[in-house]
Amino acid sequence: MSRYGAVESAVRADLRQLAAENVGVQRSLAQTAYALAAGLDRARGLGTASALIGAAGAAKELRATLEALVGVGSDSDRTAEILAQLSSPLGDAEEPGS
Fold first, then answer.
1. Of the candidates 68, 1, 2, which has an alpha carbon nearest to the alpha carbon of residue 33?
2. Which residues of 17-39 are buried (b: 16+ CB within 10 A; e: fewer)?
3. Measured between alpha carbons, how far is 62 from 35 in angstroms, rounded to an integer?
4. Residue 64: its pLDDT value, please?
5. For residue range 26-74, what is the model confidence (pLDDT) as tens digits?
């Protein structure tokens, strides 16, 4: 069993890749991203309206934190690719052929 939830695992993998590409990941923003992602994973498990409303706010803040980490506004194709991945849906996708 994974130590982290699905969202936090994905964020950690993305930030490891950014660090490997010498994007200059800032430790404090990375920790913020991890905490927000963990909160989203917990909210997904609860499924209550208040948890989901809180998760929506956390998702917005996570996106802003990750944008700050990758330096939105640069002309990097990699930045655009990462932001596109962050905007794609997680889980709950329909199975092919259904």
1. 68
2. ebeeeebebeeebbebbbebbbb
3. 9
4. 85
5. 777 888 888 888 888 887 777 776 777 777 788 888 888 888 877 754 5
Residue in the structure block whose two tokens are 């930045």? 79
What amino acid is encoded at 50 in this protein?
S
Residue 9 pLDDT class (50, 70, 90 cuts) = very high
CA distances for 97 relative to 89, 91, 94, angstroms = 18, 16, 8
Average pLDDT, the chain: 74
Nearest to residue 45, comparing CAs of 32, 36, 55?
55
Region for 34 from its dihedrals, namely left if φ exceeds 0, alpha if ψ lies in -120 to 50, beta otherwise: alpha
Q: Are 47 and 10 in contact (CB under 8 A)?
A: no
